[in-house]
Amino acid sequence: DQQVKQNSPSLSVQEGRISILNCDYTNSMFDYFLWYKKYPAEGPTFLISISSIKDKNEDGRFTVFLNKSAKHLSLHIVPSQPGDSAVYFCAASDSGAGSYQLTFGKGTKLSVIP
Amino acid sequence: GAGVSQSPRYKVTKRGQDVALRCDPISGHVSLYWYRQALGQGPEFLTYFNYEAQQDKSGLPNDRFSAERPEGSISTLTIQRTEQRDSAMYRCASSLTGGTSSVADTQYFGPGTRLTVL
User: Fold this and answer.
1) What pLDDT score does B106 carry?
2) Within chain A, how many helices (H) and strands (E) appear?
3) Which of A23, A35, B81, B109 could in theory staple to A47 by disulfide, Cβ–Cβ 3.0 to 4.6 A?
4) Which of B56, B102, B111 sits opposite A101 (nearest CB)?
5) How far is B42 from chain A (nearest CA, A)?
6) Percent of chain B with pLDDT over 70
């Protein structure tokens, strides 16, 4: 069963507008969440992360919001740029489990239209 | 600076053959991870090393899969008697420290090895 779910396989946004990518998780033990961006023929690149003790983390145009009660996080990109077009993966970890594996969603392909 | 490198980038093999996939982590990174990614899916955890010690191999699908990191740097993932279902992208990642709760633990991924078993 998928512990991290990204229910939108794809998203198209006009350049300059906001992109909102969503992620849901089922494992209540997850306490650290990350977003990775992936361009074709490259490995995933770390984008931004958030600990469960926070509900928001911002880095330039990228903001991640965490709603623990809803087991939901989202990535906001403002303003969206054509270079943001990529596949975005949500990932989660249980830092207390003693194993440092990341559990990934299936990804959302973002297309930013010029 | 150099990132995580993996070789070969592409590997085509016949069913029943053994393959060895290599990962060269970022210099100084203590922790190394192997993941497998099927088409249309996110990476799935296989195994984790802290220095040369294999701390977690719970994600290895069966005993045909093994991994080593003998000197705490380069790692090799070996698949014996390959089967068609082993076809996937195999990704390696490294992090400065072990853990998944801070930026220092961020896992940096290599470009992957695309394995095709005929």
Assistant:
1) 87
2) 0, 11
3) A35
4) B56
5) 4
6) 94
